[in-house]
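>> Question from a student workshop board

For tomorrow's exercise we were told to take the sequence and the ligand below, predict the bound structure, and bring the output to class. My setup keeps failing. Could a helper post the expected result so I can at least see what it should look like? The ligand is magnesium ion.
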Amino acid sequence: MDALTLTQVTKKFGRTQVIDGIDLAVAPGEFCVFVGPSGCGKSTLLRMIAGLEDVTSGQIAIGGRQVTDLPPARREIAMVFQSYALYPHLSVRDNMGLALRQAGTPKAEVLASTDRAADMLSLTALLDRRPADLSGGQRQRVAIGRAIVRRPKLFLFDEPLSNLDAALRVATRIEIARLHRELGATMIYVTHDQVEAMTLAHKIVVLRAGRVEQVGAPMDLYNDPDNRFVAGFIGSPA
Ligand code: ADP
Ligand code: MG
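>> Workshop helper replied:
Here is what the output should look like for this input. Compare the format with yours to find the bug.
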């Protein structure tokens, strides 16, 4: 059974067609990267998978279950944004545990899960700090930790590294790859960075103006792009 299935998903904002009939299947444990130029619909597609945006037509299933009409909280997903979206008045510990507490998880269990995630991300020493007292890289690790704590079926990342400087971008990318291996989770990751796409993905989905231009394993796209647009985006030699 697929971890994620999109069937003829479309999105219109007013009269503008932003997503134009996307079909996609993502296998359990797969690391799937959406790439494409700015404005091609990557975030919109991710937000529809998350339930933050309604689909205009089409269907979305997560783990074989239809979620098209379910609110985000019932989709068993966790999303990591480019802007960390942490609560400034809460400690790192409480930011990471909030969703579980809101779901009524017993306090001891929330603490255990938070501690485990903090350990995986080297955040243990920072658990009592507030977001304002963290660096950008640390804040993004907290946002990733908050996603892990919820043990989602599907992780959704929307350009999570684009606010970090180059060195931190590499370090955090390696950390995300390690987490993917350790958790065995399915991840959908949006980026416009070729290096991120090539190094993280099992499968790359190249988007252009709301449509899938080509789907494939990184080296297959690199060696055998369908057209110049894909070649240009993947960085294949001309
Ligand atoms: P990407 O993430 O690939 O840069 P987006 O999904 O953010 O692209 O945007 C795709 C297109 O949809 C863009 O033309 C953008 O202006 C438009 N768009 C995104 N959100 C809205 C919205 N809430 N209302 C109207 N247009 C939107
Ligand atoms: Mg975007």
